Amino acid sequence: MGRLAGKTVVLCVTGGIAAYKAADLTSKLRQAGAQVRVLMTQSATQFITPMTFETLSGYRTVVDTFDRDFAWEVEHISLAKAADVFVIAPATANVIAKAAHGIADDMVTTTLLATKAPVVIAPAMNTGMYDAPVTQQNLQTLRARGFHIIDPAAGRLACGDSGRGKLPDTPTLLHGIEQALAPADLAGLRVLVTAGPTQEAMDPVRFLSNHSTGKMGYAIAARAALRGAEVTLVSGPTALDTPHGVQRVAVTSACEMYDAVVSRAPAQHMIVKAAAVGDYRPAQTATEKLKKGDGELTLTLARNPDILATLGQRKQPGQLLCGFAMETQDLLDNAAGKLRRKNCDMLVANSLRDEGAGFGTDTNIVTLLFADGRQEGLPIMPKDELADLILDRLLALRRQA
Ligand code: C5P
Q: Is the CB of 138 under 6 A from ligand 1?
């Protein structure tokens, strides 16, 4: 369950052709567990009907302050208070101008003026209108006031022109909304995360690997990006989509991961090594497919470099290093040894023997170990919640330093 679950999203739809795309946004927000309360300007109703949003959100769509019965007059105040996040998508040049100058002449703008929730604005309009100096100045005013502006996409617009002004796709809008809900406490920090398994080739068709799916590392990368960090995700082969706002570097083997990580490490404030790196690789990789014979096959394995241990030796001043340890026995003793040997600041230890922990699950059960000897045992929790907690602890270490 993502961070939108249980949140109240007030979604304002204003009058542009992209208004129809707000229907998909409403649906996806609701699927993510949010309550969506839709407000429309009169002109938006020319493009899509209030009933569409009523059906998708399960709530009455509110259109105007003055043309309905009296109860709506106070509705804008209650919605302004109920909002965890306030979204205008699509936002026309007109509503952006009104927002920038405090004009409140309909349901959308009166509610906007009254809310204390974070505000997300997704402009969508003709390129000329978007590029107009007054629109850009208005957006700048809103940015300076702390509004979250989701830049429009470029492409062919409904009016036939090409350029900036398209409403971005739903995943981009959802990311912008989640970002507005998250604290920006990692802004200005560079975070490198490794994730997934490595594959060590025997020949062109076979490899040695492990059961890692990458879920834990991807969750950490996604949450760090939402919290404002500049995130690099060095990932072995996985079936997962690259999280929004994350730069992914795809690697296959431990040696490739070593190169990708070690070359980028000096610039990082935090490095989280969640990847399940293969400790050994076939000493020889056959250039042609190995033929089967009648007897046994003996494979000689060579030791892979230990990336984390190398990072530990070359740690920059102020840099924080977080390793992972998965064990099947003597979890905490082994983990404490690893923390020391690899010069980590924090180590996340989990046992493959625990139900709800380890490879492929959406939950994890871990103990955090710190360089000063502290240990923190955590209950079972979703991997994205644990991702936030790991980042919280690293941030606390950074603030202590
Ligand atoms: O010693 P062990 O492999 O159990 O340590 C696990 C930790 O070390 C993980 O954080 C993993 O990403 C990292 N590691 C590494 N390079 C290796 C093996 C493990 O960075 N070759």
A: no
